[in-house]
Specification:
Oligomer: single chain
Shape: flat
Order of helices and strands: EHEEHHE
Distance between the termini: 28 Å
Strand order of the largest sheet: 2-3-1-4
Length: about 100
């Protein structure tokens, strides 16, 4: 399984809801096993620059690639790119992730 996490900050705070709605288009793409769009609740006291998060899970790399190639993915980019400031993405294969305490 591939996990895909993308974090966005807004150029202008007034565009936060528009960015959220533009990213929510992604939830209509059938290739994701899980696709969530959420506002950052900014609970952590440090580095709260991120405004909106996209979290996705994909069964395999082919599903992830199909998601990125989908026309609705391009539509979401069209709606959001000009409004966002920072976009940070991270992708990883779940089977490669550490799941136990590493003793050192």
């Amino acid at each position: 399984m591939i996990r895909h996490i993308v974090m966005f900050s807004c150029k202008n705070a007034a565009d936060r809801d528009t960015i959220y709605r533009g990213l929510s288009v992604l939830t209509q793409i059938e290739h994701a096993a899980v696709l969530e769009v959420s506002y950052n609740e900014k609970i952590d006291q440090l580095a709260n620059d991120i405004d909106v998060i996209v979290y996705g899970e994909f069964a395999n790399i082919d599903d992830f690639r199909a998601y990125k190639a989908h026309p609705l993915y391009e539509e979401s980019i069209r709606q959001v790119r000009h409004l966002r400031d920072v976009r940070v993405a991270a992708d990883y294969t779940v089977s490669n992730a550490t799941r136990e305490l590493v003793k050192g």
